[in-house]
């Protein structure tokens, strides 16, 4: 195939498909075994300094915050992160110095809440590098190619733009249509963490609401930590197997943590904690504020349940549950 | 009457209203975060009750109960027809199912190319912006792309974008097809605080369609670093009715998080 353009971006997390099959053969167990562990154990066992990491969900939706805080608590360093509409998770990890390289589709912003002071400061001061650009569909399809065990997947976006030019894609002449076609390289994150509504002790997961790109991410990640609102019996999975979003054989660790996405939303369960997000957006305007936040909410608590207490405990949780059901009005404290 | 000039409105309300007017019932629209969401909601609550709204994270065909903060939250599939995935909706977009793509933009040029990545040098930016998000995809795939660029000025209507995040007509006629983008796609309308624009069929340059009430031609020209094509005939943009404003303020954005208060 004739290569027409080659992206200048760093090729992050790509492996030869045979090399990855070898990895899967030796490292992904097909045996049904109990994978339950604590967040602390999961991060200590699976996240290494220098890893390429990807966080599930989307923006402030169904994010495994329990694991994000634990990565900061264990002071992991030199991580590269998939900026696949990574918002609050990425902002905290970049702001706290854990992530210093990002492949950006949508990063450094909090959607309508505004831009991210902490992670933008790190990029603008050169402490965090954007090593490649891509789009949301582009990232999604990096995971799709990985999940399919392919070296790349063709697409018709990104071409003609600087987003494409600074990506790790290549544009070739399509041998069928004769038109230029973009080749998106597969991505195999070293470790991914995905929060789900429920799963069994083996890691068979059910997700309510949109899947975003977790169907693909779960299946291409080399190691996968699942955090779950609740552990359910395997019988529940087997009764309605069509509800299984993620099968156990791609899962490496299962961490049970109710309200484990806080301050992010979980479809049908609880709403964004806008007060908490506003506090972060306000504090993170300075390096001292970032430190103060981490001292208070991450290093100053022993675990996620302690953190939830600090955020307002049951009273706050009740409010967030009611807000998700639209039984109480929206608050937007981050508004200037 | 449609035009009720007695109605008092702010600029963001006007932008949302102008965006909503472009959307047709029985068509599909892929909405990005911010004002595009309000425009889609207003259209759904007025002239286009069966507008098929699609969100990039997987929400398909919701009847939006309140203004979402995020394009991924549960309300983006509230009473919808499907809660799927990014792969599903982006594939539908690439395959041609999306009539309108609806985006916001920081910097825009005469061909409707958008920058939402950085101001200044990419390696060491003066200002780092979020990046493409789904914008590059939507503007590559949707049959018609609508862009809301609220603050038109010489700084935002630029002769060359610092970073071409999202494709308009690239360098002019035929450039999209030559690059490999799907044929017969591209920017359709640009809405600013001053005017509504389209694109010239021949040159693909931005062209005035209508001035907003009270805006002069000079203001439009003075607030652009490139020459906007001014046709012999151009109109005055319609204004929202009291009813439109009531829906915007009471039903859609009661906290004023996007339209202000």
List the helices and strands and how they pair.
The complex is a heterodimer of chains A (336) and B (261).
Chain A: E1 3-6, H1 17-27, H2 39-46, E2 52-55, H3 65-73, E3 79-83, H4 88-95, E4 99-104, H5 117-124, E5 129-133, H6 136-147, E6 152-155, H7 162-165, E7 170-173, E8 180-185, E9 191-199, E10 205-206, H8 214-220, E11 223-231, H9 234-239, E12 253-256, H10 274-283, H11 287-299, H12 304-310, H13 313-324
Parallel strand pairs in A: 2-3, 2-9, 3-4, 4-5, 9-11, 11-12
Antiparallel strand pairs in A: 1-7, 6-8, 7-8, 9-10
Chain B: H1 11-22, E1 28-31, H2 35-45, E2 52-54, E3 59-60, E4 82-83, H3 86-95, E5 100-104, E6 107-108, E7 114-115, E8 118-119, E9 127-128, H4 135-141, E10 144-148, H5 175-179, E11 187-191, E12 195-199, E13 206-211, H6 217-222, E14 235-236, H7 242-252
Parallel strand pairs in B: 1-2, 1-5, 5-10, 10-11, 13-14
Antiparallel strand pairs in B: 3-4, 6-7, 8-9, 11-12, 12-13
Helix pairs in contact in B: 1-2, 2-7, 3-4
CATH architecture of chain A: 3-Layer(aba) Sandwich
Number of helices of chain B: 7
Structural class computed from helices and strand pairing of chain A: alpha/beta
Q: SSE string of chain B, helix = H, strand = E? A: HEHEEEHEEEEEHEHEEEHEH
Query: How many whole angstroms does the radius of gyration of chain B measure?
Result: 18 Å
The named CATH superfamily of chain B = Glutaconate Coenzyme A-transferase
The CA-CA distance between the termini of chain A, in Å, is 53 Å
Count of spatially separate domains of chain A: 1
N- and C-termini, Cα separation of chain B = 26 Å
Q: Report the top-level CATH class of chain A.
A: Alpha Beta
Mean pLDDT of chain A: 97
Unreliably modeled segments of chain A:
none
CATH homologous superfamily assignment of chain A: Glutaconate Coenzyme A-transferase
Query: Sheet bearing the most strands of chain A, described?
Result: 8 strands, mixed
Oligomer: heterodimer
């Amino acid at each position: 195939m004739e290569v027409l353009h080659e992206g200048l971006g760093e090729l992050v997390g790509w492996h030869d498909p045979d090399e990855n099959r070898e990895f899967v053969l030796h490292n992904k167990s097909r045996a049904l075994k109990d994978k339950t562990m604590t967040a602390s154990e999961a991060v200590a066992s699976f996240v290494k300094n220098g890893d390429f990491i990807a966080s599930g969900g989307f923006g402030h939706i169904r994010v495994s915050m329990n694991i994000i805080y634990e990565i900061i608590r264990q002071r992991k360093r030199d991580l590269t992160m998939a900026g696949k509409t990574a918002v609050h998770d990425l902002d905290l990890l970049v702001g706290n110095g854990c992530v210093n390289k990002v492949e950006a589709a949508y990063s450094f912003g909090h959607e309508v809440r505004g831009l991210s002071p902490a992670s933008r400061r790190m990029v603008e001061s050169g402490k965090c590098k954007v090593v490649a650009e891509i789009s949301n569909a582009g990232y999604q399809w990096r995971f799709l190619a990985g999940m399919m065990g392919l070296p790349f997947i063709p697409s018709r976006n990104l071409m003609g733009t600087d987003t494409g030019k600074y990506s790790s894609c290549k544009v070739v002449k399509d041998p069928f249509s004769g038109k230029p076609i973009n080749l998106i390289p597969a991505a195999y994150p070293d470790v991914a963490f995905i929060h789900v509504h429920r799963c069994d002790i083996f890691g068979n997961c059910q997700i309510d609401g949109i899947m975003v790109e977790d169907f693909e991410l779960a299946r291409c990640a080399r190691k996968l930590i699942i955090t779950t609102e609740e552990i359910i019996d395997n019988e529940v999975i087997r009764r309605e197997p069509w509800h299984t979003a993620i099968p156990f054989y791609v899962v490496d660790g299962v961490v049970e943590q109710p309200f484990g996405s806080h301050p992010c939303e979980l479809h049908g369960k609880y709403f964004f904690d806008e007060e908490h997000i506003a506090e972060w957006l306000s504090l993170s305007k300075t390096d001292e504020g970032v430190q103060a936040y981490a001292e208070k909410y991450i290093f100053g608590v022993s675990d996620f349940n302690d953190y939830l207490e600090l955020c307002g405990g049951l009273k706050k949780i009740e409010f967030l549950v009611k807000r998700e059901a639209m039984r109480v009005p929206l608050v937007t404290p981050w508004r200037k | 009457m449609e035009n009720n000039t007695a109605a008092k409105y702010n600029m963001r309300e006007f932008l949302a209203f102008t965006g909503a007017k472009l959307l047709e019932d029985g068509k599909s629209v892929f909405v990005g975060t911010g004002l595009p969401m309000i425009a889609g909601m207003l259209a759904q609550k007025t002239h286009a009750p069966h507008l098929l709204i699609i969100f990039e994270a997987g929400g398909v065909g919701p009847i939006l109960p309140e203004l979402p903060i995020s394009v991924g939250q549960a309300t983006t599939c509230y009473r919808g027809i499907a809660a799927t995935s990014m792969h599903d909706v982006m594939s539908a977009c690439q395959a041609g199912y999306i009539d309108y793509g609806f985006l916001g933009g920081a910097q825009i040029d005469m061909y409707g190319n958008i920058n939402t990545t950085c101001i200044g040098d990419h390696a060491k930016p003066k200002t780092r912006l979020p990046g493409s998000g789904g914008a590059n995809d939507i503007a590559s795939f949707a049959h018609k792309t609508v862009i809301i660029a609220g603050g038109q000025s010489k700084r935002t209507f630029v002769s060359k974008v610092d970073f071409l995040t999202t494709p308009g007509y690239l360098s002019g006629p035929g450039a999209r097809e030559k690059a490999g983008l799907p044929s017969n796609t591209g920017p359709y309308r640009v809405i600013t605080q001053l005017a509504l624009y389209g694109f010239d069929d021949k040159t693909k340059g931005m062209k005035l369609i209508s001035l907003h009430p009270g805006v002069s031609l000079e203001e439009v020209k003075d607030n652009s670093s490139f020459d906007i094509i001014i046709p012999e005939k151009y109109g005055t943009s319609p204004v929202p009715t009291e009813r439109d404003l009531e829906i915007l303020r009471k039903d859609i954005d009661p906290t004023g998080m996007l339209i202000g208060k």
